[in-house]
Amino acid sequence: MTTIKDIAKEAGVSYTTVSNVIHGRTSRVSSQTIAQINEIIKRSGYAPNMSARSLVSNSSKVIGIINHLVPKASGGFIADPFHSAFIGAVEETLRENGYYLMLRTVEDSMDLLSFLRNWNIDGMFFTGLFEDEFFDTLSSVDVPIVLIDSYINHPNMQNVGLEDYKGGYLATKYLIENGHRNIAFASPPIRSHGVVEERLRGYRQALDEFHIPYQEQFLFQGEFDVQSDMLLSRQIAAHKEITAVFATADILAAGIIAGLHDIGLNVPNDISVVGFDDVTLCQLISPTLTTIHQDTVEKGKAAVEFMMNRLNNNRVEEHQKILPVHLIERKSVKRI
Amino acid sequence: MTTIKDIAKEAGVSYTTVSNVIHGRTSRVSSQTIAQINEIIKRSGYAPNMSARSLVSNSSKVIGIINHLVPKASGGFIADPFHSAFIGAVEETLRENGYYLMLRTVEDSMDLLSFLRNWNIDGMFFTGLFEDEFFDTLSSVDVPIVLIDSYINHPNMQNVGLEDYKGGYLATKYLIENGHRNIAFASPPIRSHGVVEERLRGYRQALDEFHIPYQEQFLFQGEFDVQSDMLLSRQIAAHKEITAVFATADILAAGIIAGLHDIGLNVPNDISVVGFDDVTLCQLISPTLTTIHQDTVEKGKAAVEFMMNRLNNNRVEEHQKILPVHLIERKSVKRI
DNA sequence: TTGTACGCGTTATCAC
DNA sequence: GTGATAACGCGTACAA
User: How many CA atoms lie within 13 A of A295 on its CB side?
Assistant: First the structure.
């Protein structure tokens, strides 16, 4: 492997000079040596040893995307299509900025702390963080943290999220305007400071505006797997008065639609459904899914931008970036 | 940050001793000191500095999952559900073995080489590699490489794949046995040494066995996006004699089904469809998709297992691990 | 059973 | 303009 020393030797200079050239501190190096060194660098395919840099500079150029494994569940991480698109966008933007991405699952605070120290991690992304014990650890760490889809506010962290409230509102309003009054709200378990809670607020706001009473029994909570969705569908269908469902994620919506089909109900003729996210899936199921659109790539970019600001300026201007959502009309809602 | 020195100082021993304890070379350390050192390690939350280790030991414990960005396309990487599930499985298994995962997109050979040197990467995973110029670079590198879903054989690399041939065979045979004779083969562009080529071989084998002539015009190639799928569907529908489609990926199958619906054709009544992969999607679309099942998590585990064997023993016994596939019968095929 | 000293590749400080 | 040299945290050969 070519090192700075090798280059210095070949050029007949000291390694300081080589290092200076590499870092653009060329003010006091003869243009001859600069040219020569650059030539050698190019020819030899020199690439800096990041471990050495990390050791001496206290910056590793490594950013972690952390997956907090709450129970000992498998896969979770990257399983849903939104997540993976997001990670792809993050990697790309990070790379453009000279950073590297590590994926890491941690089981508890200790795990996380070890990981940070192991690699001298420069920054972290967290998705869907809630206010649990784990969060306390996080807030005491002095590494830049960008939270995605979380409603926790903390001076050391920045948030990238969506207009969740508005999304919930738009979806519900759209259903109401199409004549629906008994609208189910389907979601994963609602946790405080989470996005679902906000979407629920939007749902209630829309009901309120149209003077439709909010009913607890129209709340249905499940997990993100086909089994659980089947169950949800049955529960929803059991309420004959329900004519529409707002599901807080497209995969959930798709699962519910499949479940309804399974028990002989037609969407949208018997029940209308609106989703959230606008993943590719929406255009593949039938009926195609009316949903709330979010721009995942933009989300990834925004997250990295925040990170870079923290990393470079160290001056924090904003703490929040809320990306817009809008409704995409497809075929899963019927006017009644 | 706690270092080995700090621990040594606190325990009143030299750092060699601490290092020895950490590495289990306890044979010649008093059990007292061992206990004491372990206690301090636990209490202080000591985590080794991997950069320092990497520098001195020539092993970084970092494995890369490489995304070779052929043109300057975006996202590609992780976009399809199979990929993300695979990455999740790899991360988990890697972690259990004390390794770390970096995700990295590279645009060309230089990029890759730099990345390897930057981090002293211990090993790499590649998905769907073909025999292009890029491959030559790869083969000259002395880092363990595990290829996923690739039919390139190279002494320095190992392969984890599927019974692609059998999968293609099973899917086609199933269609034939259900009375179909004019069966389209839909896939992304067929490249030599790729999985699609093998699945096509299986397709042809099944046709052969039933004395059905193979027809070039029944081959349809597209990309993995909804637009392209719509086009494909139209092309397929234009051949009135075609009664069934074997698509080499579920997302493609789903896209085609959506496209067929769009032009007023019903699946499976007008056209039957069989997919490949058995991703969650299959159960969400309607009709639910009959497909060839593969075990993605097992694939991830197998890949890591290969990697670990290379990394530890350095003795290479097998070069190939082929995971089984089988057909899952759902509702997208009609007996005619 | 424990300690000393060196080197890994890099950066930064200070001197020439 | 350029060059020595210490330091980052760790592993290891060798010495005691």
Answer: 12
A208–chain B nearest CA distance, Å: 33
Tokens read off for B252:
């493609």
**What are the structural domains of chain A?**
4-48 (1.10.260.40), 62-162+296-322 (3.40.50.2300), 164-294 (3.40.50.2300)
Structural tokens at position B213 = 């002539």
| Its pTM surpasses 0.90 | yes
Interface test with A, best of B22, B42, B51 (most A CBs within 10 A): B51
Are A233 and A171 in contact by the 8 Å Cβ rule? The answer is: no
Tell me the CB-side half-sphere exposure of residue B118, using CA atoms within 13 A: 16
pLDDT in tens, A162-218: 999 999 999 999 999 999 999 999 999 998 888 999 999 999 999 999 999 999 999
- Top residue of A4, A51, A82, A267 to mutate, by most chain B CBs within 10 Å, is A51
Among candidates A7, A69, A6, A62, which has minimal Cα distance to A33? A7
- For B1-16, the pLDDT digits (tens) are 788 888 888 888 888 8
Contact check, Cβ <8 Å, B91/A105: yes
- Between CA B122 and CA B221 the distance in angstroms is 37
